[in-house]
Amino acid sequence: GNSVTQMEGPVTLSEEAFLTINCTYTATGYPSLFWYVQYPGEGLQLLLKATKADDKGSNKGFEATYRKETTSFHLEKGSVQVSDSAVYFCALSDRGTPLVFGKGTRLSVIA
Amino acid sequence: DAGVIQSPRHEVTEMGQEVTLRCKPISGHNSLFWYRQTMMRGLELLIYFNNNVPIDDSGMPEDRFSAKMPNASFSTLKIQPSEPRDSAVYFCASSSLQGWEKLFFGSGTQLSVL
Fold it and tell me: Which listed residue, of A23, A35, A44, B108, carries a Cα 20 to 30 Å from A6's Cα?
């Protein structure tokens, strides 16, 4: 079946550090890929998405590129801020099926 | 729009009691999803509805769990009887059929079964 694997957290970084959160997927078809973010005490919200190979999704300084050859969709940000502290979820949807989420990676950014 | 509204925010109950979680989706959204979040298993899809009709309930863990959507603006998730292993955060999310991949989540219900 379809699945998503994320790097285990927590990840702790200093402000302005570079961020990478790894995500790989398994899918029978040709899925769309997503990153969702969950701020403390809130529900998840869509951060960015990519629907085909080599697409780059971007939002709020975050980027992720759909790599079909490595079945990956790693999340990156060049300079993190304290306000980026949250839990980040990688997800996929294959041919319109409901989203399948990874377990989430907690990011803590310290000043 | 107020977004997806869930109630209660927190629920503490004793084993064996009935628990009802409520959700009001965003007006105009056609799809509604119930997810459960735990440390061990992450975010699991329990059931989803399209146009008030249950489409897939294969994620519902046991017969103790049931969900209804009597109209486009209201859904419930019921656990009867509740057990300590049901303790988790339960999220409701909605989306439009045109923008199905963009889910709008509620703030969740933190359930503790003692």
Answer: B108
Give which of A52, A37, A10 is closest to A91, Cα–Cα: A37
Pairwise CA distance, residues B3 & B80, whole Å: 28
Alpha helix (H) ranges present in chain B?
A: none
Cβ separation B105–A43 shorter than 8 A? yes
Q: pLDDT over 70 for what percent of chain A?
A: 100
Please answer yes or no on whether B101 and A49 come within 8 Å at the CB atom. Answer: yes
Residue A33's closest chain B neighbor by CA? Answer: B101
Q: How far is B47 from chain A (nearest CA, A)?
A: 10
pLDDT band at B97 (very low <50, low <70, confident <90, very high): confident
CA B28 to each of CA A14, B2, B82: distance values in angstroms, whole numbers, following the listed order: 42, 13, 32
Highest mean pLDDT range out of A25-29, A37-41, B68-72?
A: B68-72
Taking alpha carbons only, the member of A1, A7, A17 closest to residue A108 is A17
